[in-house]
Amino acid sequence: MNDTLSPLSDTLSAFSSGQLSLTNLAQQWRQAAQSHQPALPARYLEVLERVLSQLESSALFTEESCSFSQSDMVAALADWLARARALPH
Questions:
Q1: pTM
Q2: Burial annotation 30-49 (CB, 10 A radius, 16+ → b, else e)
Q3: What residue numbers bound the domain in which 30 lies?
Q4: Largest Cα–Cα distance of the chain, in whole Å?
C-alpha cells in the first residue's frame, strides 16, 4: 500500500508551493485511494473525501476562512496519509 501512497506527500509539497493545482491535487489523491480498494477501510475513504471536499470548497474564498482553511486541510491530508501508511498491509 505504501508504494501507491508514497507520491502523495510530494503532491502536498507541490500544492503548497503553487506547482500543483487544487483540482490536480484532489484528482491524484482520489485516484490513489481508489487504487487501494479494498485495502483501505471504507472509513478512510469517507474521511479523505470529506477533507478533499472541504479543500475544494476553500478555493471559493480569496483569503483564509475560519471555516475552510487550506493550510488546515493540507495538514489534515498529511495526517490522513500518515495514518493510511500505518495500516497493516
A1: 0.81
A2: eebbeebeeebeeebbebbe
A3: 2-86
A4: 41
pLDDT reported for residue 1: 47
> Are 75 and 3 within 8 A, CB to CB?
no
Cβ contacts of 41 within 8 Å, gap of 6 or more? 87
Cα 89 from Cα 53, distance rounded (Å): 27
Q: How many domains does the chain have?
A: 1
CA distance 44 to 84: 8
Residue 76 one-letter amino acid: A
Q: Which three cell numbers stand for residue 89?
A: 498491509
| Residues 31 and 11 sit within 8 Å (Cβ to Cβ) | no
What mean pLDDT value characterizes the chain?
A: 83
The tens digit of pLDDT for each residue in 44-86 reads 999 999 999 988 887 776 555 556 678 888 999 999 999 988 8
What is the distance between the alpha carbons of residues 76 and 57, in angstroms, rounded to a whole number?
Answer: 15
